[in-house]
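[step 3/7] inverse_fold.run input=structure_tokens len=533
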């Protein structure tokens, strides 16, 4: 039965036009907040969408991510905004889902199927007394053959250079014809602007219009967080198991008794504990109790330690999931294997501390950078992962539990990381500790425009650092000459480079509208207005 035009179609059209107005040729800043408020208002007034605690929490996280963009506009905060929008989309339409990873996948399906969902919504809607179903059928009959033909044209052009040449000429002529036709019909609207409106409609459709399929929710409902004891004969065999049985024959199909499985696990964890104990002993002797040596390659040691940690954490999770994912959890004599598993988790935690110490030594010697901060965040995630693995063994949890808890914590950490202005933190820490660290001058000068006030305030200090620092010249910016020995000319070149950056920022800021407003750019502009030379 056909239905009258509804809230969804009104909201989708308005959302597409609003998207075009907010983001066309604008920086992503306060306009993201406005678009978020529009989406939230539509969701709240839509009676078809469920509003529960999970939805309100997802809304709150999305609003927080929008606020971080306004306060600390950066690539990180913008990426966090898009991810939070995807999570909100998944939660609103699939409220029964629990895992953040599955919710993100559901949101991906929403965006992929958005055009199809929109066509279905339009096809089932009356516009007054008019139905456009016949037009959509004609479009379907034309669109699908065009897609199929285009795919085969691409394949044939790869196989034949001559065909590719003719195809390129035909495509160029067709593009010119369509461009001229579009210009004739819509003289005041550019083709790129039209595509931008379409993009806004598709994104709004994905957020507001649900994919009519509950397969993901049904599949996840079959997953438990608590392990349950199963009879061996009732355990479903996977496709991988059946494939392996072709090669292993009866050997694989023999049922290992829990006693045998327990012994194998004890021997495995014992060997792995001894191996990791040897590695940690080396760290204790050389890193924790040893003295720092001049000329230490902090970068190489940190990378080696991080690589070892990644391998160890992966091994720990795989081995523990293998042995503690079945009936061995309920075996009455599994105390020894549990203790060995806990010891291995503790040793991996000590390995995390060793990598953290290397990172702090690196920071203490050479200052903060994004990569060193990234290592610290990675170590936090590793610590959370080890804690959840411990809970998995101690509380008899499943792999689904690990995915759900870790996914949620990763998402929250991403949102909260936007509260910090990392550029200002990096340059402030490095300048405050300049007497104790070997500064990377190029890294300081490569940070965002938000750091320009600090750079301007510390011109004299930066020139002093530049003279004593070892760095590659900015040959592409014509600032430094590698063979130049005149410090005065180099200082003038550096000041000119900084003045050019300031001038470029002010020119860009003057060209933007209020839609691109964010606090950090405004703060930077206010500083230079008050300190106009």
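[step 3/7] decode complete -> sequence:
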């Amino acid at each position: 039965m056909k239905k009258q035009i509804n809230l969804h179609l009104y909201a989708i059209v308005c959302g597409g036009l609003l998207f075009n107005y907010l983001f066309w040729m604008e920086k992503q800043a306060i306009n993201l907040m406005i678009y978020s408020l529009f989406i939230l208002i539509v969701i709240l007034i839509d009676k078809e969408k469920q509003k529960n605690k999970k939805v309100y929490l997802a809304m709150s996280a999305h609003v927080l991510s929008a606020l971080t963009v306004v306060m600390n506009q950066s690539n990180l905060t913008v990426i966090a905004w898009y991810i939070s929008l995807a999570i909100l989309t998944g939660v609103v339409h699939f409220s029964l889902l629990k895992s953040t990873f599955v919710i993100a996948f559901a949101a991906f399906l929403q965006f992929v199927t958005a055009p199809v969902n929109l066509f279905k919504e339009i096809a089932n809607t009356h516009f007054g007394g008019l139905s456009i179903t016949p037009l959509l059928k004609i479009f379907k009959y034309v669109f699908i053959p065009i897609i199929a033909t285009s795919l085969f044209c691409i394949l044939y052009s790869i196989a034949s250079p001559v065909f590719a040449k003719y195809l390129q000429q035909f495509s160029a002529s067709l593009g010119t014809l369509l461009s001229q036709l579009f210009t004739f019909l819509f003289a005041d609207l550019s083709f790129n602007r039209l595509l931008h409106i379409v993009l806004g409609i598709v994104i709004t459709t994905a957020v507001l219009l649900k994919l009519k399929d509950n397969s993901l929710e049904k599949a996840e409902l079959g997953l438990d967080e608590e392990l349950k004891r199963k009879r061996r004969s009732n355990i479903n065999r996977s496709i991988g198991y059946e494939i392996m049985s072709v090669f292993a024959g009866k050997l694989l199909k023999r049922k290992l008794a829990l006693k045998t499985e327990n012994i194998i696990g004890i021997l495995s964890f014992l060997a792995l504990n001894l191996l990791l104990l040897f590695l940690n002993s080396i760290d204790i002797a050389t890193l924790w109790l040893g003295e720092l040596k001049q000329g230490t390659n902090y970068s190489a040691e940190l990378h080696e330690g991080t690589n070892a940690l990644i391998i160890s954490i992966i091994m720990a999770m795989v081995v523990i999931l293998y042995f503690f994912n079945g009936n061995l959890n309920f075996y009455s004599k599994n105390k020894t294997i549990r203790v060995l598993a806990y010891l291995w988790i503790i040793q991996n935690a000590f390995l995390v501390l060793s990598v953290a110490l290397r990172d702090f030594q690196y920071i203490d010697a050479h200052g903060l950078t994004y990569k060193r901060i990234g290592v610290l965040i990675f170590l936090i995630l590793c610590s959370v992962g080890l804690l959840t693995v411990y809970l998995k063994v101690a509380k008899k949890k499943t792999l689904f539990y690990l995915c759900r808890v870790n996914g949620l914590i990763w998402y929250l950490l991403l949102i909260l990381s936007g509260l910090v202005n990392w550029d200002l933190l990096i340059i402030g820490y490095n300048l405050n500790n300049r007497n104790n660290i070997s500064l990377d001058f190029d890294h300081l000068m490569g940070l965002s425009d938000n750091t320009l006030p600090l750079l301007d305030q510390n011109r004299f200090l930066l020139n002093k650092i530049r003279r004593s620092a070892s760095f590659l010249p900015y040959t592409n910016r014509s600032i430094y000459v590698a063979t130049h020995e005149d410090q005065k000319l180099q200082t003038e070149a550096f000041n000119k480079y900084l003045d050019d950056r300031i001038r470029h920022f002010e020119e860009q800021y003057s060209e933007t509208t209020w839609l691109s407003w964010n606090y950090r750019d405004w703060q930077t502009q206010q500083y230079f207005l008050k300190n106009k030379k």
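[step 4/7] annotate
The chain has 23 helices and two strands.
The CA atoms of residues 185 and 392 lie 64 Å apart.
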